[in-house]
Amino acid sequence: MVCVQAPVVLHAEQIHKSFGEDEILAGVSIEVREGELVSIIGPSGCGKSTFLRCLNFLERPDRGRVSVLGVSIARDGGPWRRADEHAAHKLRTHVGMVFQSFNLFPHLTVLDNVLLAPRVVKGERNATMRDEAMALLEKVGLRQVADRYPVSLSGGQQQRAAIARALAMRPEIMLYDEPTSALDPIVAEEVLGVMRTLDDEGMTQIVVTHDMRFARLASDMVIYMDAGQVVEAAPPEALFVNPQDERTRRFLRTVL
Ligand SMILES: Nc1ncnc2c1ncn2[C@@H]1O[C@H](COP(=O)(O)OP(=O)(O)OP(=O)(O)O)[C@@H](O)[C@H]1O
Ligand SMILES: [Mg+2]
């Protein structure tokens, strides 16, 4: 859900990334407005995850610029400097990330998973955070299992716990890399429901997904990537019904 006048909160400009001789991202640019839900789709290996990771500098772009809510990091092929690390740290305070494989800490309860990052990173006290963490668990439908360990939860519950954990840092933007592809369709729907709720509340979200139904029904904007480039970016009905580029058409024919 996005209002036309909403400000741009994330801007990636001409992101380049190579691994060895292979150029994986060949100048990827996107602009995301506050409250937008953007899906990134495209064939396996086209660079979607690499691009998403570049947005919060889990992967360092070789060249290009990422700007998030007033924090801007430009790369020109030079070395990664202390100032870049400082800026990346600041940028990450605005950006939460959720992975396909949940990445919860197995030795901590669901509640402690949610409490850990604010405690360590922001130095906040358990007492002040606990109510907020329980409210987040309520929001994702996990209040009843707050004291259980991840191993005793279903995949869908674990992923919702991972979302609550990311939200505990109070990010303005959430990134998801195939959040439902390890899940069967019914529990996947619970996770997608949480993302829709966040969308209704105005959260800005960028989702790499192979779930074309979700991309079509829930997104404000769909980006089709191929071979390290953005081929086409359009609202879902335009992209799915009337794709402009032959590569998009071919991809959609194979997956729909
Ligand atoms: N750390 C790395 N070192 C070397 N090559 C890498 C690394 N990370 C990714 N790659 C390569 O970059 C290419 C793009 O990978 P990426 O994971 O971004 O694709 P993807 O679009 O997310 O694919 P999928 O849909 O299968 O998840 C692949 O060829 C991959 O092997
Ligand atoms: Mg991927």
Automatic annotation (TrEMBL):
Keyword Coiled coil annotated: no
**Primary location class:** membrane
Compartments it resides in: Cell membrane
Q: Which GO terms describe its molecular function?
A: ABC-type amino acid transporter activity; ATP binding; ATP hydrolysis activity
Which PROSITE patterns does its entry note? ABC_TRANSPORTER_1 (PS00211), ABC_TRANSPORTER_2 (PS50893)
SMART domains in UniProt: AAA (SM00382)
The keyword Membrane is annotated on this UniProt entry: yes
Positions of the ABC transporter domain: 10-252
Protein family membership: Belongs to the ABC transporter superfamily.
This one is known as Amino acid ABC transporter ATPase
Which organism was this protein described from?
A: Acetobacter peroxydans
